[in-house]
Amino acid sequence: MFKKLLFVLMVTLIAFSCSQEKKEYTIVFYNVENLFDTINDPITWDDDFTPKGKLEYTNERYQQKLVNLSSVLSSINKNDFPTLIGLCEVENRSVVEALVNQEKLKDADYGIAHTDSPDGRGIDCALLYRKNEFKYLSHDVIGIKFPNEPNYKTRDILHVQGIIGATDTLHLFINHWPSRIGGVEKSEKNRVFVAEQLKLAVDKLQNENTNAKIIIMGDFNDEPTNKSANETLAATNSKETSNPKALYNLMYDLKVEGKGSYNYKGNWNMLDNLIISNNLITNKKGLHTNYQAGKIFTEEWICYKTPNGISAPSRSYSGPKYYGGYSDHFPVYFQLNR
């Protein structure tokens, strides 16, 4: 009897020890540059992305796009698939399903959180999550309605709630803010307004739970130093704060160093942001990361050389010209550790 009890105790201790092993989770955001299917949706402006459209977007080009994107996403962490992947510029759920079923991604067994947004072009945000590492709980959206421009439609902010590593509840916000069309200064008010709506949602969560674990990711069409992110959302690079509600932008210091995720006419812009609640850095135990965790995936094989020698993102299209690349943005990512 004693030997049997000893055996059970040893098995229990081994199981507990295994459950306490260090674990690394890769968190990614990627603007995938117009991941459209070839079907003409009569209620959105997707006519160009059809075989007879201006871009001559055939099924072959669509399938190549899926292969290209799956190659990128499966290569960011050479040891394992990313746990969470935020996406923007996806047309609908079906293209996201086609992406996760690609040969290079299907073994990751990704679940999908997605909602159709009112954007005129029909592009949305989505979240991919590994079902064995992230327990999906719910998702909803923050709808954006401009009070002075009721006919202006933009992307909703996708909010996903789930549990990572069996114990930690995460709130994720996936964003794609209004573009800079018309000029950075003239269009800034739209991005500031979206940042205000996001800040209201974050404040509500933190007022209910000071230690809420929050990850904000997205193409802001603004940089970490711009008003919308730095002032309105109050996501900074301050490392000297004891405020548990503070937000830290992991891409801020990279921007200061002159790096970026998007290249416009030879200039780097850090339009893709990764922001976390302060408790994901100050935690001494459990889920945590560090101030230097933000990274840009810039492997040469997803780049092309500009005339002045810059390795910029190799895009699918530039205007009507087809290049067959990956995206006009680099993916950004960081590691969460337990």
UniProtKB/TrEMBL annotation:
A Pfam family reported for this protein in Swiss-Prot or TrEMBL: Exo_endo_phos_3
Domain Endonuclease/exonuclease/phosphatase: residue ranges: 26-338
GO molecular function, one term: catalytic activity
SUPFAM superfamilies, alphabetized: DNase I-like
Protein name: Endonuclease/exonuclease/phosphatase domain-containing protein
